[in-house]
C-alpha cells in the first residue's frame, strides 16, 4: 500500500470512529430530559449521575495512555468503542436512579478510554501527515452529534430514551469495527514530528511548557462549557418561557451543526491566522453567544445563542489536542491521556457546580460561563505573546 493510500484509508476509518463518538454524545445529551422524566430525577440527582459517570471516565483516562503504549492505540480504541456500545445497550434496562447511575459509571469508564484512544490516533496520524487533521475529525464528531440529536428527538416517544440509547450503542460498536480495520501505524519520523502546517510554523517543542499550559486551559475550559451545554442546556431551554422538547432538540442540533461547519472551516483559518489567533476569535464569538443565550429573553435567543457558542467553541478542543501533540511528539499517548484526564476532571466538577448553583434556576449557573471564557482568553493571549517572541528569536537565528 502506498503512503497516499495508507493516509486515505486511515483518514476514512478515523472519520467513522469520530462519527461514532460524536453520535453517542448527541444521543446522550438530547435524551437526558427523557431520562429525568422516566426515572423521576431532580436536577441534583442528574448532577450526581453525570459527575459519577465523568469521575469513572476520568479514572480511566489516567491509565489509558499506559494501556495504549502497552497494547497499541488501535487495540485500545477497538476495545473501548465496543464496550461503550454495550454500555449504551444495557442502560435502558436499568430503571432506578441507583441502577442507572451504576450503569452510567461503567459506560463512563470505557467512554473515557474511547476519547483518549481516538484523539491519540488522530494526533499520531496528524504527525505522520504533517498536516492538520484533528479539526476535520472533530467536525465529523459534531456532524454526527447533530444528526443524533435530531434522530433521538424522533425516536424518543412513548418508549422513552431506550431507542436512542440502543442506536448509540450499535453506532459505537460500528466504530469499533472501523477501528479494527485501521492499519498498524508506523511512528512519525522525529525530525518531522512538530512540522504540522500552520501559519506560525514554529517548533512548539521549544515552548513545550507554554504549549502544555494553554492546552490544559483550553481543554478544561472547552470541556466545562461542553458539559454545561450537553448535560443541562436541554433542561435550561425547557425552563424558558414558551420553550419545550422540540426547541431543546433544535437548539442542540444547531449547536452541533454549527460546530461541525466551524471545525470544517477552521483548518483553512488556522493555516491563515495560526492557532492562537483562531482561538481568540472563536472565544469572542462564544462570549457573544453566552450573552444572547442567558440574557436575551426572546423566543429566538436560545437557537442563536447555541449557534454562536457552537461556531466559536468548535476549534478549541482540536487546537488544544493538536498543540499538545506537536509540543510533545515523543510522548503523544501519555500527553494526550494527561490532557484528557484534566478535561474529564471538569466533567466531574461541572455537573456538581451547575446542579448546586442552578438548583432553583439553571440561569444562575449559565451566568458563570463568562468567567471561564475570560480565563481561556487570557491564556490564549499569553501563548500568542510567547510564540511571537519565539518567532522573533528564530528570525534572529536565521539572520545570524
Write up this protein.
The protein has 400 residues and is mainly alpha-helical. The protein has 14 helices and no strands. It has helices spanning 3-39, 43-71, 73-90, 97-129, 134-155, 162-180, 208-239, 245-273, 275-295, 301-313, 316-327, 332-357, 362-366, 369-399. 58% of the residues are buried.
Q: How many β strands by DSSP?
A: 0
Mean pLDDT: 83
Number of helices: 14
Instruction: List segments where confidence is low: pLDDT < 50 over at least 5 consecutive residues.
Output: 190-195, 394-400
Shape: globular
Largest β sheet strand count, sense and barrel closure: none
Q: What is the gyration radius calculated from CA atoms?
A: 20 Å
Instruction: Compute the separation of the termini in Å.
Output: 44 Å
Helix content: over 70%
Helix-strand pattern, N to C?
Answer: HHHHHHHHHHHHHH
List the helices and strands and how they pair.
Elements: H1 3-39, H2 43-71, H3 73-90, H4 97-129, H5 134-155, H6 162-180, H7 208-239, H8 245-273, H9 275-295, H10 301-313, H11 316-327, H12 332-357, H13 362-366, H14 369-399
Which descriptors apply to this entry?
14 helices, mainly alpha, globular, 400 residues
Amino acid at each position: 500500500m502506498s503512503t497516499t493510500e495508507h493516509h486515505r484509508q486511515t483518514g476514512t476509518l478515523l472519520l467513522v470512529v469520530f462519527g461514532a463518538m460524536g453520535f453517542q454524545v448527541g444521543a446522550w445529551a438530547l435524551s437526558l430530559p427523557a431520562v429525568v422524566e422516566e426515572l423521576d430525577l431532580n436536577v441534583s440527582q442528574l448532577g450526581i449521575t453525570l459527575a459519577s459517570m465523568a469521575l469513572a471516565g476520568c479514572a480511566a483516562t489516567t491509565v489509558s495512555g499506559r494501556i495504549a503504549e502497552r497494547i497499541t492505540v488501535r487495540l485500545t480504541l477497538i476495545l473501548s468503542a465496543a464496550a461503550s456500545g454495550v454500555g449504551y445497550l444495557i442502560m435502558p434496562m436499568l430503571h432506578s436512579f441507583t441502577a442507572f447511575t451504576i450503569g452510567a459509571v461503567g459506560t463512563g469508564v470505557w467512554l473515557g478510554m474511547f476519547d483518549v484512544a481516538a484523539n491519540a490516533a488522530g494526533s499520531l496520524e496528524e504527525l505522520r501527515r504533517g498536516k492538520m487533521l484533528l479539526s476535520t475529525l472533530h467536525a465529523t464528531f459534531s456532524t454526527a452529534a447533530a444528526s443524533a440529536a435530531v434522530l433521538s428527538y424522533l425516536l424518543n416517544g412513548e418508549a422513552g430514551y431506550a431507542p436512542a440509547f440502543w442506536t448509540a450503542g450499535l453506532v459505537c460498536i460500528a466504530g469499533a469495527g472501523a477501528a479494527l480495520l485501521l492499519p498498524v501505524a508506523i511512528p512519525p519520523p522525529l525530525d518531522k514530528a512538530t512540522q504540522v502546517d500552520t501559519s506560525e510554523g514554529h517548533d512548539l517543542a521549544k515552548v513545550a511548557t507554554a504549549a502544555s499550559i494553554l492546552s490544559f486551559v483550553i481543554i478544561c475550559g472547552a470541556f466545562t462549557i461542553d458539559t454545561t451545554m450537553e448535560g443541562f442546556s436541554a433542561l435550561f431551554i425547557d425552563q424558558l418561557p414558551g420553550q419545550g422538547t422540540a426547541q431543546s432538540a433544535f437548539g442542540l442540533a444547531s449547536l452541533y451543526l454549527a460546530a461541525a461547519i466551524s471545525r470544517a472551516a477552521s483548518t483553512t483559518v488556522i493555516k491563515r491566522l495560526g492557532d492562537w489567533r483562531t482561538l481568540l476569535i472563536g472565544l469572542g464569538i462564544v462570549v457573544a453567544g453566552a450573552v444572547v443565550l442567558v440574557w436575551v429573553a426572546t423566543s429566538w435567543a436560545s437557537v442563536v445563542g447555541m449557534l454562536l457558542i457552537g461556531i466559536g467553541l468548535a476549534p478549541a478542543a482540536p487546537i488544544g489536542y493538536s498543540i499538545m501533540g506537536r509540543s510533545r511528539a515523543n510522548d503523544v499517548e501519555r500527553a494526550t491521556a494527561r490532557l484528557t484526564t484534566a478535561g474529564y476532571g471538569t466533567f466531574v466538577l461541572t455537573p456538581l457546580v451547575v446542579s448546586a448553583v442552578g438548583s432553583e434556576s439553571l440561569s444562575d449557573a449559565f451566568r458563570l460561563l463568562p468567567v471561564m471564557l475570560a480565563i481561556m482568553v487570557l491564556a490564549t493571549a499569553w501563548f500568542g505573546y510567547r510564540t511571537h517572541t519565539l518567532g522573533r528569536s528564530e528570525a534572529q537565528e536565521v539572520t545570524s
